[in-house]
Input
Amino acid sequence: MLDGRSAIKRRAGLRLWLSGGWLLLIVLAAILAPWISPQDPLAQDLFAARTPPFWEAGSEPGFWLGADSLGRDVLTRILYGARIALIVAFVAGTLTCAVGAALGLIAGYFRGWADRIVSRLVDIWMAFPPVLFAILLIAVLGTGLTSIIIAIVVIDWTRFCRVVRAEAMNQGQMDYVASAQVAGMSRLRTMWAEILPNVLPTIVALLSLEMGIAVIVEAILSFVNLSISTDSPTWGGMIAEGRTSIHQAWWVLVFPLLTLFLTVLSFSQFGEGLKDRFDPVLR
Amino acid sequence: MSADAPLYQVRDLRLSLPDMTSKPLFGPRPRIEILKGLSFDIPKGEVVGIVGGSGSGKSTLGRTLIRLLDPSGGQVIFDGTDISHLHEDALRPMRRRFQMIFQDPMSSLNPRRTVSAIIAAPLKLQGFDRVRERAAEALDHVGLSRSFATRYPHELSGGQRQRVGIARAIATRPDFILADEIVSGLDVSSQAQVLNLLEQLVADLNLTLAFISHDLSVIRRLCTRIIVLRHGEIVENALTPELFGAPQADYTRELLDAIPLPDPDQVWI
Ligand SMILES: Nc1ncnc2c1ncn2[C@@H]1O[C@H](COP(=O)(O)OP(=O)(O)O)[C@@H](O)[C@H]1O
Ligand SMILES: [Mg+2]
Output
């Protein structure tokens, strides 16, 4: 049969493979960083300061993507930086998703007073400017991995909540929900077994997007020096340092920035690709 | 209950909902009356047609009969039990006995479940044994090959989907089925097939059926009794030959005049 499905499938497939491939690379880099890194991420080598990347004149073997102004290897620090980025992405993304999606699902499906409470809470939450909120939270909680994760969850659960609520409300109108009641299914089980599977593609896409957002938030907080202690390399910290020497050593800024950009893009594209793949009509 | 007591006894059935279009500054929203005190019986084995214009309350009435909606007044007595205010927990074991076929099978079949899972759901929930076997028998009954069991709704044609909806409704061997505009989304030839199937099932399975439609020609062919609704009130309730022979209410006459009625034997092939 000739229809649009095959074209959509191919495009979704390519997107899924490219973004998935990059994310796999980053995951491997994070796991294998101690074994595959050419240098020690914290070792300063003032003789190697501002060594350019390998294809430029004056490069040194072992400093593939150059070195920063303290002589630390950029590639090594990007590999180690992937660890923090991914921990924040997975932990903060998953927790944000769990909190927001659960509240959204309950509000959207049960409506009534449950919906009124959740919606009011979301409205109040949305009144705070998110970045200010984050900085305030970190100021209260102190810097560190846990505070960053808590800050992201506290700020971003509303994104899941709003979208999942609207989607659950849509699905709740469908007759398959009424037919579950006719069959004698309880409300709770209907939410779990009928609504949730139909909202799951949306949740997965959002979760992937949220992981990308968590990576950005972590980078921003590192950039303003509110993140992890300065010892462990983070992409945001590298970008902040690279900015000061952009004219003498562009590679210190550009490579972590590029990695950050590709990772965030991949997370969002991966989510969209998965959503298409999950669609029963396109399957 | 004696054998010839009606399956349904509906007395002064009322249903009102808050009017979402008005938002008063103080106090609760005014309520709009959708069902305004309906009384009628559905005898066992009868096929009752419910007709009326769009918005006349047909679906609301139907869904109240099987307690998808809660009446705000009056009584719905099903086989001697007043179900009008039964709690869902008490209602659940009774749900085996009244089932529903929906208008839009695309919306009423969960897109993520296979045909066999869809038909098996009420059987499992109502605690039947031999679930797989019964689901397969239901497929046989509606004339779908058992190979459909592993398919998903989007892989079926409109007529096939509606057959799956029918299979689900008859799987628990109910006493009563509500069919709400079940052919209005289908092309003419599938319509005829689905209606023929329904007619046969009513006879074979000893069903009592409420058939909602705005198409009087379909109603005339299928139903033994017709209830005409208008603005949430019954304007006429009569046996089919009487209603077509000598309509009592003006509104019924208007309906009959408005709809071109071909020879009833040729309504469908
Ligand atoms: N959830 C609801 N809230 C408010 N009004 C409703 C709701 N559902 C139905 N109605 C109104 O009730 C009337 C009857 O609706 P319905 O039973 O669906 O009519 P029919 O099936 O005969 O077309 C309509 O006027 C409709 O606008
Ligand atoms: Mg209707």
